[in-house]
Amino acid sequence: MIFNVGVSAADMADEGFRNNGSKSVLLVSIFLLSLWAPFLAVNDVEDTLDDAVARGFSGPFSLESGFGHDIAGTTLDVDGLVEASVREESMLDLWNTEALNVSFGEHHGTPDLKLTRSDKTHFCWSTQEGSVRTAIHRTGVWATTLVDSVATANASTLVDCALAVTANERPRVLYADGDDLKMGRYAFESATYWEGPQWHTRTIMENVHPTHLELDITPEGLEWGLMRTASGALHQVNFSGAYWTEFLLDAGPVGENFELDIDEDGVAHVLYSRTATNDVVLLRVDGHDRDFRLLLRDADLVDALGMDLDANNIEQVATATQGLSSFSINLIRSLAGQDTGRVDPVPSTALIGENDVGEGHLLMGDLNDDGFDDLVVSTPHASSNGMNQNGRVDVYYGSTSGVASAPDAVRHGSVSGAQMGSGIAVGDFNNDGTADLAIGSPGWAPSDDVEARDGRIQVFLGNASGLTTTAWSTVAGSANESLGSVLAALQRTGTGDGLAVTARNFTATISATQTDHGKVNVFAANTTGLHAMRNMTQSKDGDLFGRSLEA
Questions:
Q1: Which residues fall within 8 angstroms of residue 380, CB to CB, at 6 or more apart?
Q2: Helix (H) or strand (E) holding 8
Q3: What is the pLDDT of residues 92-106, one digit of tens each?
Q4: CB-count exposure of residue 389 (10 Å: 0-12, 13-18, 19+)
Q5: φ, ψ for residue 447 (rounded to 5)?
Q6: How many whole angstroms from its chain centre is CA 227?
Q7: Among 419, 551, 543, 541, which residue's Cα sits nearest to residue 487?
Q8: pLDDT at 198
Q9: CA-to-CA distance for 279 and 434, rounded, in angstroms?
Q10: Coil, strand or helix: which one is 27?
Q11: In the predicted model, is pLDDT for residue 281 greater than 80?
Q12: How far is 409 from 442, CA to CA, in rounded Å?
């Protein structure tokens, strides 16, 4: 507007200002423009997520979009192919490049990004100068915000931020400030935040030395993250809704590249590598339950991983190996039986067990600490070693080829009627990092009274050589209570896992009209064995208390 007014004034000067009224109009116009100048001036500030600035955009096609259905039936020159025909049922990935000018004169690391609904892309990036920034990009529109200013870094010490976006498009950022870990949440203008949209930041952990981060959002809208520290350990860091918690997932050293995806059921799927053993590990975290699976072991493994979930929340994994003269990308997918169900209807291995008149149990756990799940099969009514219904527990160690046709370890009941294996549980009872096996024999009797079915439980430790041949800890029942009919491991942190055990034949006369049936014993465990903590009996009438346990 000022430029246009200036042109009008020049034209009038050429005419010699013959009209004094025109001079007055010009002076009044200039005066008014000077009054409005503060309102018309361009404010050189950063864009907010609500007030975006449009950028230029161009692509190689003039079609409606770059998707395959728009170019099906046409011919293209792509990747060295000349006039390649695009089939109707095919899709072509179309990549467009655009300079977003996000440097601000700073030296940024590798940005994290999330693609949300309506093709909206969220970014976050950290810089050596200490700025942590985010941006939103959609159809040529680019908007940026400054999350926080933190300690400066150099190219080797810079920790890239991790980004997650809630269902209502609120970005969350997990980032480092020196040796501390911080979280940023973006709040839009509301009755609470009346000053406008802004970032709220807080330090959630101090002196943890983070090096690499990942972040996702649970179905409840809470943050769930991964943190690799300078020692190579991998930690779970999550917000409960009231406070932040931390859990060591793997002491490592783990690779710098790891993946995190949380499904709609709240299960966290984690993929990472162990650099010392060249393993690729898949971890599923469901509340307090953690399921580790070794997917690959390769001496040529490189630190490059990819993971996504299919419609059944099954992980589809990509890894990479580098040999002396070759590079390979390996796809690890679960597709067997996908036409009739996720599980292949044709078994890959069939195991024939002992003759048994009653049902036993199946459990899985890594009892020999080789990264492969092992199979535990109990047949409590089996007869062996010249005894009748003494019970039997078979252990099959897992490997790259599955399990063997014959068990690798067998445990037999010591007396007739012991029914060993009526209850079994897998847990780390001595807290050494390797799964152990607890076995219940509710029909066990002491040698001096074979008619007293006191029952007992035994814990066999797992180690790199396999299950121990003798029990590490043994607890006998009393008063013909049949201890060991049902077992459940109780996961604990910082000490050995606990154990809940049912004594199905326990009775206690409370009054002339009340007799309690059944009891659940709870044991703690440490490096010395199992130790009784408490007992629980029924509070209502009935004789089925403790017949089923879940932990």
A1: 356, 358, 360, 389, 391, 392, 419, 420, 421, 422
A2: helix 2-14
A3: 455 566 677 656 788
A4: buried
A5: -65, -25
A6: 12
A7: 551
A8: 84
A9: 17
A10: helix
A11: yes
A12: 21
